[in-house]
Write a structure and sequence with these properties.
heterodimer, A: mainly beta, Immunoglobulin-like, five-stranded antiparallel β-sheet, B: mainly beta, seven-stranded mixed β-sheet, globular
């Protein structure tokens, strides 16, 4: 069973517009969520994260929104740039700060974002 | 870049042979992880380590073993490789707390013929 789902395998947007990538989860124990970006032949690169005690976290052009009641998170990229073209993975973990939690991540299957010039 | 080096970067081998992949870190992080990435599955955790000689299974651990004799090195071994283990393998590291993101190496592409 897929605990973290990214239902859109791909997304195409125009440069300068907003990109919205979506992720759904089923495990209510998840309390930490992350987005990673991956270019071909490279490892995933951490982008932004959010704790379950928040509903929004912003870092420059990237904003992550968390809707716990819907078990849904989204990543907004504004404005989108051609260099943002990559596969985006959302990931989730269960555990609490300071508990020595293992930080075991469950990943979605990824969304390929193409930003057209 | 996080100081993570995976070796080899590419390997082709035959079914039934043993294979060892190495992950080396220079960050002195406590936690190290091995994932595999396959189409349609994202990244899946194979094994992880929470300290020297302390390891545990992830969600797809069958057919794999790991060892960590030093903080900086985490080895993944396929005792008898099978074609289903053809994949891209990623090592990751993280600090102590669950609100610290994992940082990944650049991967090892393993093909088992």
């Amino acid at each position: 069973d897929q605990q973290v789902k990214q239902n859109s395998p791909s997304l195409s947007v125009q440069e300068g517009r907003i990109s919205i990538l979506n992720c759904d989860y089923t495990n209510s124990m998840f309390d930490y969520f992350l987005w990673y970006k991956k270019y071909p032949a490279e490892g995933p690169t951490f982008l932004i994260s959010i704790s379950s005690i928040k509903d929004k976290n912003e870092d420059g052009r990237f904003t992550v929104f968390l809707n716990k009641s819907a078990k849904h998170l989204s990543l907004h990229i504004v404005p989108s740039q051609p260099g943002d073209s990559a596969v985006y993975f959302c990931a989730a973990s269960a555990g609490s700060v300071g508990s020595g939690a293992t930080n075991k991540l469950i990943f979605g299957t990824g969304t390929l974002l193409a930003v057209q010039p | 870049d996080a100081g993570i080096t995976q070796s080899p970067r590419h390997k082709v081998t035959e079914t039934g042979t043993p294979v060892t992949l190495r992950c080396h870190q220079t960050e002195n992080h406590r936690y190290m992880y091995w994932y595999r990435q396959d189409p349609g599955h994202g990244l899946r955790l194979i094994h992880y380590s929470y300290g020297v000689k302390d390891t545990d299974k992830g969600e797809v651990s069958d057919g794999y073993s790991v060892s960590r004799s030093k903080t900086e090195d985490f080895l993944l071994t396929l005792e008898s490789a099978t074609s289903s283990q053809t994949s891209v393998y990623f090592c990751a590291i993280s600090g102590r707390y669950s609100n610290q993101p994992q940082h990944f190496g650049d991967g090892t592409r393993l093909s088992i013929l």
